[in-house]
Amino acid sequence: MNEIELRHLRCIVTLAEERNFGRAATRLHMSQPPLTRLLSEIERIVGAKLFERTTRRVALTATGAVFVAEAEAVLARAETAMEAVGAAVRRQSGQLRIAYTPLALQTVLPKIIARLREREHDVSVDLVELTGEQQREALVGAHVDMGFSDEPTENSGFDSLLLHRETLRVLLPENHRLAATDSVPFSDLAGETFILHARSEYPGYFDRVVAACQEGGWAPKIYQREAGQNCLALVTAGRGVLFTSVHFGQESLPGLRYLAVRDAPADISAEVWAIVPRASGSAHLESLREIVQSGANSGKIPLLQ
To answer: Do residue 173 and residue 248 come from a single domain?
Structure first.
């Protein structure tokens, strides 16, 4: 080996992060001996030792720390370049990559896409489901062209346009003590356990539920949904109750009741925001921007009804 490639840099950075050949090799999907040989070859090319290695520890040398910092910068620049190329390819091919949350897909997004296809017959739309936080990262990294999220963004490179807002209802088992009526006073939910996604996934929704409970005079008990868990299954199993949208149609599910909530001290709502890049894009993206801005400016919530 006479030249250092990006894949070699990734190996060294991973080893620096793990400080252990076995763990680094596992992350890199390779066995330990080839990783050891690779490090020796890179040290030969560089002309300096990058790691101090003993049977008990692996530590960066001063030279190694400089090498790893530069390697991380090179890898970041390479990733940025690939993202920029991907965005350029999408623009040239007429493709739009759009991120959405489940509520967006159940409310405004199908009508927006239909309107876009009426205007741009050759557009190719790729939809990807992402949480609000994932959308913000994907937009900044140019992995997606526009997002439809549960909350606005504070990033100055994007406009946030409110497209939909609705008051949530509460979903509970049909044998629940409150299930005999079609609506329930918010105060009657005191003492219930609320099933919530992690705040990092949907912070706006999480905060609105907690704030409503606190303004009602009580601290909510929370069952935080883990990855892979289904919220409806958790309600069915009696783990708690769930604030949810009328658009998901859970009222028709056997064994569950879907109730309106009266007299909540704070707004328990779900929202859909379009996260729109301010920078100009392809003709297809500009058409999508015009459709979204027109709907938001008209004050029609839900959009395009």
So the answer is: yes
